[in-house]
């Protein structure tokens, strides 16, 4: 351990620089009696040749000129992201809590002009904390260039200077080392943090005041105090309590002004305001009921203002006026200066949204009873209809000629043409049977009909037809016999309950059937290629009204009495539940893009759902005066139609945009006159033509109406 002499030597070294030679001589004297004299001498010689020891100097913290005045110009926001102040006119706060104003921001034009005129523009940077512009010096540019090149920032630093052996395995009497600063000198003090927190809490609670508040109080004491004579809000310090009490009172509402006097109240009124004999007679007649008179006084003419006598009811009227002001309550009412036209949304004109059906152009007659359903083939050349008279008719769309009539013997609840373009196949719901018909040969499409018969003639393997016991108990596939084949029936699927709705998949291989009162077996999915059926539900989702496949994704929409459930057929799970708010759902239709859904109900409403937006209706359309029984979308044009028990078929514009941030545009376009009601029913089904803006309606009077 070094003695007191060493400590004195260290103090002297602080006061005066010590040369390497003197230090080496003292070191040689202290090491004379040691064994390893040669090693120490070698180390001293190396230190002498390479190191110049400088004394430890204490640096003045105010040497750079940093004063309290300059601290106010520095942004003291701390470690706060600068983007928090992007929307404000200031960039932070100073010590006193005052806002530091943001430097004026230059637009692109000013920046371009400065770039052309200012030679120092290329080396001007902006301080993000204060917003000030700083011109980089030559030394700063060199420093940045060295950093970008991956070199040491300090140009005076020698990376390849000879290594100095400060520490060796030899034990020295005087250690040559400097201990680093302790960690607590770099970590913020916890005690100071608690002290600052106590000051902030006292400011928030009002126990202490800032310098600005103290200066404001001193200014108020120097001012003269004025008092409000009538007890309103005072201007001086002595009226603070009274002002606080006045603020708690309701806002004063001035009394309404009396209307100015008219010509009849003049001392010399015009002749037309004076009462003639007839008017005087009516005046005297209303003496018992004076409030019915035209005036509350009798107009009279005087030669001059001096000839006007005293008004005998002056005191009485003033007294009543005072009572009205004292007893009658007054309140402020906010008026909206809006016209009724401004409350109606601005919708485009229907003539700008053409084409759409505007008039009835064709009537298809031939059914003896009401027509339940109708549909077009994929090309739009033919139409098929099913009626309660037990027939299915195939029509030519362009001429309205009936090409073929299929006698089925029972009322037809639903007909649907397959969407597959290469097949001629119609699904018909007849009682408890689902019949697959081929009307193409009689309609003229012989090649398509032959291809369809060849496809259905080949029975699939027995392994594909095998179904579980639960499904086999409620459905049975039956091939058509010779008589049925002659009538156009190709396949028959027998169910244990009557079939009320049929829906095709977009590819034409799957078919969904809805049964009446089927409980958990109300929905069945049939596959034509394998002639196999499936029951997708173990439990009843509710009283099922109809089902529909998604046009692009493996989703199944099941409409119950009050809600629409969406199921994923691949994952076999419920995806979402759409809350319609209706009492009884009647029909549904999917937009060709698959992102929007239209639901009709018997309580005269149509609900438009945006499946990407919410599980509640985007818009509820009340366009009908009766139950809505059918809705349909057009495959090509932004059109949709709805019909029901009233005398109107409503055609509307429904534009769905590719931009997800833009809501669909719904505009009612035209009310088409529906057929006469029969048995309180008017229109039971509507279908759009696949390519043309034509609409086909199945009416209760046994006709089909084509609108174009």
Fold blueprint:
Elements: H1 4-15, H2 20-30, H3 37-50, H4 68-72, E1 90-93, E2 99-101, H5 108-117, E3 124-126, E4 133-135, H6 138-148, H7 190-205, H8 211-222, H9 240-248, H10 277-285, H11 314-327, H12 340-343, E5 360-365, E6 371-376, E7 382-387, E8 391-396, E9 402-407, E10 412-417, E11 426-430, E12 433-437, H13 440-443, H14 446-457, H15 462-465, H16 469-472, E13 475-479, H17 482-487, E14 489-495, E15 499-504, E16 510-515, E17 523-527, E18 532-534, E19 546-549, E20 555-559, E21 563-568, E22 573-579, E23 585-590, E24 596-601, E25 606-610, E26 619-621, E27 628-633, E28 639-644, E29 648-655, E30 665-673, E31 683-688, E32 695-699, E33 703-707
Antiparallel strand pairs: 1-2, 3-4, 5-33, 6-7, 7-8, 8-9, 10-11, 11-12, 12-14, 13-14, 15-16, 16-17, 17-18, 19-20, 20-21, 21-22, 23-24, 24-25, 25-26, 27-28, 28-29, 29-30, 31-32, 32-33
Helix pairs in contact: 2-3
């Amino acid at each position: 351990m070094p003695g007191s002499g060493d400590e004195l030597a260290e103090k002297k070294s602080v006061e005066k620089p010590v040369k390497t030679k003197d230090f080496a001589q003292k070191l040689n004297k202290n090491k004379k009696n040691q064994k390893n004299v040669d090693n120490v001498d070698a180390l001293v010689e190396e230190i002498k040749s390479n190191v110049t020891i400088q004394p430890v100097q204490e640096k003045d913290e105010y040497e750079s000129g940093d004063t309290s005045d300059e601290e106010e110009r520095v942004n003291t926001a701390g470690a706060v992201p600068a983007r928090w102040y992007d929307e404000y006119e200031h960039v932070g706060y100073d010590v006193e809590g005052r806002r530091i104003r943001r430097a004026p921001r230059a637009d692109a034009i000013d920046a371009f002009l400065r770039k052309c005129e200012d030679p120092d523009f290329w080396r001007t940077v902006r301080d993000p904390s204060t917003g000030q512009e700083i011109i980089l010096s030559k030394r700063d540019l060199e420093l940045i260039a060295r950093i970008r090149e991956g070199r040491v920032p300090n140009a005076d630093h020698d990376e390849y200077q000879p290594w100095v052996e400060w520490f060796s395995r030899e034990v020295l009497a005087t250690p040559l080392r400097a201990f680093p600063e302790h960690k607590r000198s770099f970590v913020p003090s916890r005690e100071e943090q608690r002290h600052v927190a106590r000051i902030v809490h006292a400011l928030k609670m009002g126990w202490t005041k800032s310098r600005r508040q103290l200066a404001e109080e001193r200014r108020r004491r120097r001012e003269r105090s004025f008092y409000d004579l009538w007890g309103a809000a005072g201007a001086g310090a002595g009226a603070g309590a009274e002002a606080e009490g006045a603020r708690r009172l309701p806002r004063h509402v001035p009394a309404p002004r009396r209307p100015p006097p008219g010509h009849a109240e003049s001392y010399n009124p015009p002749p037309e305001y004076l009462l003639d004999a007839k008017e005087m007679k009516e005046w005297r007649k209303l003496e018992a009921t004076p409030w019915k008179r035209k005036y509350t006084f009798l107009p009279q003419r005087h030669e001059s203002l001096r000839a006007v006598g005293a008004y005998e009811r002056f005191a009485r009227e003033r007294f009543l006026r005072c009572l009205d002001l004292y007893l009658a309550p007054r309140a402020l009412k906010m008026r909206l200066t809006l016209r009724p036209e401004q409350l109606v949304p601005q919708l485009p004109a229907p003539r700008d949204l053409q084409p759409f059906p505007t008039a009835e152009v064709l009537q298809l007659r031939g059914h003896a009873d009401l027509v339940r359903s109708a549909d077009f083939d994929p090309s739009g050349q033919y139409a098929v209809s099913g009626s309660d008279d037990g027939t299915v008719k195939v029509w030519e769309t362009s001429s309205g000629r009936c090409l073929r009539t299929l006698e089925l013997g029972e009322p037809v609840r639903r007909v649907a043409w397959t969407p597959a373009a290469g097949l001629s196949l119609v699904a018909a719901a007849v009682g408890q049977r689902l019949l697959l018909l081929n009307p193409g040969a009689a309609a003229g499409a012989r090649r398509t009909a032959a291809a369809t018969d060849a496809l259905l003639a080949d029975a699939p393997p027995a392994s594909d037809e095998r179904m579980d016991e639960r499904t086999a108990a409620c459905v049975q596939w039956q091939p058509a016999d010779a008589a049925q084949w002659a009538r156009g029936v190709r396949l028959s699927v027998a169910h244990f309950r009557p079939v009320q709705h049929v829906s095709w998949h977009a590819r034409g291989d799957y078919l969904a059937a809805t049964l009446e009162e089927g409980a958990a077996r109300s929905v069945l999915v049939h596959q034509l290629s394998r002639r196999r059926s499936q029951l997708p539900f173990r439990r009843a989702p509710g009283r099922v009204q109809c089902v529909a496949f998604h046009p692009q994704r493996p989703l199944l929409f099941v409409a119950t009495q009050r809600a629409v459930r969406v199921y994923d057929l691949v994952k076999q799970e419920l995806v979402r539940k759409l809350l319609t708010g209706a009492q009884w759902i009647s029909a549904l239709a999917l937009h060709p893009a698959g992102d929007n859904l239209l639901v009709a109900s018997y309580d005269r409403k149509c609900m438009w759902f945006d499946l990407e937006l919410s599980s509640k209706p985007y818009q509820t359309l009340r366009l009908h005066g009766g139950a809505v029984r059918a809705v349909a979308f057009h495959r090509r044009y932004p059109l949709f139609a709805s019909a029901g028990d009233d005398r109107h078929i409503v055609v509307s514009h429904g534009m769905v945009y590719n931009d997800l941030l833009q809501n669909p545009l719904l505009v009612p376009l035209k009310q088409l006159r529906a057929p006469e009601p029969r048995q309180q029913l008017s229109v039971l089904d509507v279908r759009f033509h696949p390519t043309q803006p034509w609409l086909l309606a199945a009416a209760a009077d046994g006709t089909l109406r084509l609108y174009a």
